[in-house]
């Protein structure tokens, strides 16, 4: 049995989710001869110790202690502002790193991190979990197999059931950076094409405090790809029907929709239609539960050298460039070109 020790930094909402998923990996990986152990740390020591105790994991006072304990991989689930420093810690230790998106607060801050990773031969996987969702994977397979023909339209939707705390939104960078960046990433990943221009509009009809911190609660971006294909990316913080994430891909031969199932957060206005009949998802963690689990299993496989990096820092920064352009367009009211290169 091969032991893989993961060190997790940060046990807030997303960190607790990752801790639970890591602890559940053995049920999947033990038959492959892999035993996963978890050590974690957080500045909120009492909370972190409680999480560790509940999962049978270990607690250590700092990330330096995790490194000294000989972890095989570092999982970063802390606030965005700490990502660059912690990525460097993992790279310096010579171990693979998993970091929640984004790489840094903005693209300008992320570029030196990319250089540091390259210069030191670092291995860093960024957490864009939709790449592991069954629906998105099937849509990409169908497109690459030629089953859809050529794509003429794409419509991506991400709707939170309720907004996060205003305190979070004040430092999130805006709706496109915080939320729609996942759609920008998945559109690039699925089509294999770059988004070269964004034109965005937004509104505030919910809590006025969201506008007071410089954000919008609903927004729409018209995106243009490098081959001229167009698409839309929409997002809202107020979707009372449930957490709704979908992607409609219309091709010359066939169309597909990711996220259309019995838990889709909508109802038909047509007579006699009961679909969908299930309970809609309430949170992103529910909607992407399987994807988050698969993402962490993929990180273990990356550590063991059994797979290529499924989401590189360059990929993540490319999506962030589009999000930055969308935020700029939202502020200026005009279309914004996207700089597509992340190379030095």
UniProtKB/TrEMBL annotation:
The keyword Oxidoreductase applies. GO terms for molecular function: nucleotide binding; oxidoreductase activity. PANTHER family: BINDING ROSSMANN FOLD OXIDOREDUCTASE, PUTATIVE (AFU_ORTHOLOGUE AFUA_2G10240)-RELATED (PTHR42840:SF3), NAD(P)-BINDING ROSSMANN-FOLD SUPERFAMILY PROTEIN-RELATED (PTHR42840). This is Dehydrogenase. It comes from the Bacteria. It comes from Pseudarthrobacter sulfonivorans. Belongs to the Gfo/Idh/MocA family. The keyword Oxidoreductase applies. Pfam families: GFO_IDH_MocA (PF01408), GFO_IDH_MocA_C (PF02894).
């Amino acid at each position: 049995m091969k032991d893989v020790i993961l060190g997790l930094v940060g046990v807030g909402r997303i960190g607790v989710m990752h801790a639970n998923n890591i602890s559940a990996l053995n049920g999947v990986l033990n038959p492959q001869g892999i035993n996963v152990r978890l050590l974690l740390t957080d500045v909120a020591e009492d909370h972190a110790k409680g999480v560790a105790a509940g999962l049978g994991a270990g607690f250590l006072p700092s990330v330096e202690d995790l490194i000294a304990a000989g972890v095989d991989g570092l999982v970063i689930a802390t606030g965005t502002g700490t990502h660059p420093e912690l990525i460097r810690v993992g790279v310096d230790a010579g171990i693979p790193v998993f970091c929640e998106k984004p790489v840094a607060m903005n693209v300008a801050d992320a570029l030196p991190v990319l250089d540091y990773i390259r210069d030191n031969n670092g291995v860093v996987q960024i957490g864009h979990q939709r790449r592991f969702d069954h629906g998105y994977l099937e849509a990409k397979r169908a497109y690459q197999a030629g089953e859809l023909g050529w794509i003429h339209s794409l419509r991506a939707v991400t709707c939170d059931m309720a907004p996060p705390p205003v305190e979070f939104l004040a430092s999130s960078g805006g709706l496109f950076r915080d939320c729609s960046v996942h759609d920008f990433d998945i559109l690039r990943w699925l089509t294999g094409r770059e988004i070269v221009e964004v034109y965005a509009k937004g509104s505030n009809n919910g809590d006025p405090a969201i506008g007071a911190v410089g954000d919008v609660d609903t927004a729409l971006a018209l995106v243009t790809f490098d081959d001229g294909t167009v698409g839309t990316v929409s997002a809202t913080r107020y979707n009372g029907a449930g957490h709704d994430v979908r992607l409609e891909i219309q091709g010359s031969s066939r169309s597909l929709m990711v996220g259309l199932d019995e838990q889709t957060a909508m109802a038909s206005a047509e007579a006699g239609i009961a679909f969908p009949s299930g309970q809609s998802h309430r949170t992103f963690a529910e909607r992407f539960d399987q994807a988050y689990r698969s993402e962490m299993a993929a990180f273990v496989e990356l550590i063991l050298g059994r797979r290529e990096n499924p989401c590189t820092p360059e990929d993540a920064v490319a999506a962030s460039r589009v999000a930055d352009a969308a935020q700029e367009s939202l502020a200026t009211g005009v279309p914004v070109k996207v700089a597509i290169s992340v190379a030095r």
